TrEMBL record:
InterPro entries: Alkylbase_DNA_Glycosylase/TA (IPR051912), DNA_glycosylase (IPR011257), HhH-GPD_domain (IPR003265). GO terms for molecular function: alkylated DNA binding; DNA-3-methyladenine glycosylase activity; DNA-7-methylguanine glycosylase activity. This is DNA-3-methyladenine glycosylase II. Its EC number is 3.2.2.21. It comes from Krasilnikoviella flava.
Length: 316
């Protein structure tokens, strides 16, 4: 495991916390945190013109707003506002991927250029399971634009205002109790079908046990998530990538992923089984390989058949 640099220059003012984090290896802030953003208008995540990344989160001690800005080649200043500021500040090294160990990773030939261009790409670890799980459930078997629209609507309606001087419109996700209390008609108004809505509510109802999974070994953690009806291997992988910083979690069952990975690595489409065979030599970095392949702007697998239509469950 790589060493975790200690945060330097921690300054507290009331409940607010500012720290300067300097890494001992390259760090690309935008690429590392990008998976935490669910759509261009996600009310929990914002990039501003000054290059800062703003995000909100709900930790055990309360809501918090973070502003992260790069001030040097490997230095990030992170400001925190809100009751959860101290807890979120303590988790900054994991959020920025300091526990992501790439020392034994050798990318496939098809991803080497991408790896050279993005040496600061890391697997972030948010540690917040429900925050990763609800949007993953919303993204099950629908067009991504539909899921992002639902996430935006639900957080805007049921979330709380972001603490501190956050950009206008930023919100904090609902608590587990808040997600469980979302009325049926609001899931419908957000365009979420009853199956996905019921899964999200079940996750919220057992959120305490699911949050504990963040401290478990990856396989055990995913097994715990998959005990919730409606949470399968694809959903648990999406959560593992974001909440656990799992560089090996492959989103098996994704509508396009296997074909795109097969095309990138061999020039031929493949299915999930074929994708796992192709990625097997790169364990425990299979998800890292996938991310690099998608950074590498190589041609996508040719489409077969018509695009999926966007289902609007609000009219059903």
């Amino acid at each position: 495991m790589p060493s975790t640099p200690a945060a330097a220059g921690v300054v507290t003012a009331g409940s607010d916390v500012t720290l300067e984090h300097t890494s001992d290896r390259p760090l690309d802030l935008g690429l590392t945190l990008a998976p935490l953003r669910h759509g261009a208008h996600d009310p929990t995540f914002r990039r501003t013109a000054d290059g800062a990344v703003w995000r909100t989160t709900l930790v055990r001690t309360g809501p918090v707003t973070q502003r992260l800005v790069v001030t040097g080649a490997r230095t990030v200043v992170v400001q925190h506002w809100g009751p959860g500021a101290r807890e979120a500040a303590d988790a900054v090294p994991e959020l920025l991927g300091e526990t992501d160990d790439t020392s034994a990773f050798t990318p496939p030939a098809q991803a080497r250029d991408a790896a050279r261009r993005a040496p600061g790409l890391r697997m972030c670890r948010s540690g917040r399971v429900l925050e990763a799980l609800v949007p993953a459930v919303l993204e099950q078997k629908v067009q991504i634009v539909t899921a992002h629209r639902a996430w935006r609507w639900l957080v805007a309606r049921h979330g709380a205002p972001a603490p501190g001087p956050a950009p206008e419109g930023m919100r904090v996700v609902p608590s587990a109790r808040g997600w469980a209390a979302v009325p049926t008609w609001d899931w419908h108004r957000a365009g979420v079908d009853p199956r996905r809505a019921a899964t999200a509510v079940r996750c919220a109802q057992v959120a305490a046990r699911l949050e504990d999974a963040a401290a478990m070994p990856a396989d055990e953690a995913r097994a715990r998530l998959e005990k919730v009806a409606g949470v399968g291997v694809w959903t648990s992988a999406e959560v593992a990538q974001r909440a656990f910083g799992d560089a090996d979690a492959v989103s098996v069952g994704d509508f396009h992923l296997a074909g795109a990975v097969g095309w990138a690595l061999t020039g031929e489409r493949t299915d999930d089984e074929g994708m796992l065979r192709l990625l097997a030599p790169y364990a425990p970095h299979r998800h890292r390989v996938v991310r690099l392949l998608f950074l590498d702007r190589r041609p996508q697998a040719p489409r077969r058949g018509p695009r999926l239509s966007i289902a609007d469950y609000r009219t059903m």
